Amino acid sequence: FYKPCKFFLLPLDGGEAEYDARYRGLYAKDPFGRYHDCAVEDFQQCLVNGTIDDCQANATQMCEEFENLQEGFLHFDHIGGAVLAIFQTSLPDSMYDVLHTMLDSEPAAVPIIWPLFILISILNTFLIVGLFVAVITDTFKRTDTKYCEMEENDEE
Question: Any stretches that span the bilayer, and where are they (predicted)?
């Protein structure tokens, strides 16, 4: 079972109090003391009827670090990986892999992700239509040039 989620690293400067104040009650904490958004819906539902400590004790899932998806090609860690991921969105079969990974891994960015994917789809559509029109126009131009040359040869 795999679901991308995010864990929030402990601060290196010793700011554990601010760390707890920021994420306590919003996210569950794993045995290593890291807050994460795995099963955040279950955790929030538990908070309706229980205390933070009770819900924290019942949090059974935790996040693990793992390599990037699709043999390391699906990520936004640097510009090269981002370009490959955006190229994957232009292909209809693999667009949903990128979309669902982004939606699951960064819940706070969902309002930004949907307009981004709509914009990418529109731009990719114009790019593909432009390439198609360029190929058709070039083919007609070459055919017209050949036809004109053949007419000139027939007249001589």
Answer: 112-136
Residue 66 lies in a domain: no
Which residues in 65-89 are b (16+ Cβ under 10 Å) and which e?
Answer: eeeebeeeebbbeeeeeeebbbebb
C-alpha–C-alpha distance, residues 138 and 135, integer Å: 5
Query: Of the given ranges (43-47, 71-75, 79-83, 114-118), which has the lowest mean pLDDT?
Result: 71-75
My answer on whether 146 and 76 are in the same domain is yes
The answer to whether the predicted template modeling score (pTM) of the entire model surpasses 0.70 is: no
Q: How far apart are CA 146 and CA 154, in angstroms?
A: 12
Q: Residue 28: enclosing H or E segment and its boundaries?
A: strand 28-29
User: What is the extent of the structural domain holding 38?
Assistant: 7-58
8: helix, strand or coil? strand
CB 34 within 8 A of CB 10: yes
